[in-house]
Amino acid sequence: MISCTEFIPAYSELYRYLEDLGGADAVMDYWRYVSDVYVACRLGNLVKEKGIMGCWEYWDKALNEEAADFAMEVDEEAGLFTIDMRYCPSKGRLLELEHMEPYHDYCGHCDVLYRRVLEPEGFVCYADMSRTDKAACFFRMTRQENPLLVTPHRKMSKPKNPAPGD
Question: Could you report the per-residue pLDDT of 53-77, keeping only the tens digit for each?
Fold first, then answer.
């Protein structure tokens, strides 16, 4: 059985293989497929049920399971949700490997997977992938027309010592 840490390089190599077979379109087709059959029924259903807080619930679980270094912020009233991925363990692992070079657009899958689900739900998505060489990125999802709009928002985080029953 393949371990989760071995799965990351396997994905990177799959993207490279698909691109060798059918070009960038083949990779995009695969990412769209994964979005449609996996992400839509998870993130999509949460967003349909809970709105912007569905984003919070989805990524709180996913990014904590991955042990990522990240900060999320949400403003329900403004319909704004952001993720500042300070260190992505998947891309970080790929960058540490000496025996292979990561697929040149490895991080592109996140933008495609999530944008494909969120935009039909009325969100405008913005991804800053300028720091992926350092295993870092930034995502903003908003109901505003201008995804670069700077909106005052409050930070949300789990209490360090939650009250009993929380």
Answer: 999 999 999 999 989 999 999 999 8
Q: Which amino acid is at 131?
A: R
Task: Name all domains of the chain by residue range, CATH numbers in brackets.
Answer: 4-142 (3.30.1380.20)
Spatial CB neighbours of 27, under 8 Å, sequence gap ≥ 6: 15, 18, 19, 105, 108
pLDDT in tens, 99-156: 999 999 999 999 999 999 999 999 999 999 999 999 999 999 998 665 455 443 333 3
Residue with tokens 């992938």: 129
Paired tokens of 149? 């709009």
At position 27, the amino acid (one-letter code) is V
For every residue of 24-55, DSSP letters joined together read HHHHHHHHHHHIIIIIIIIIIHHHHHHTHHHH
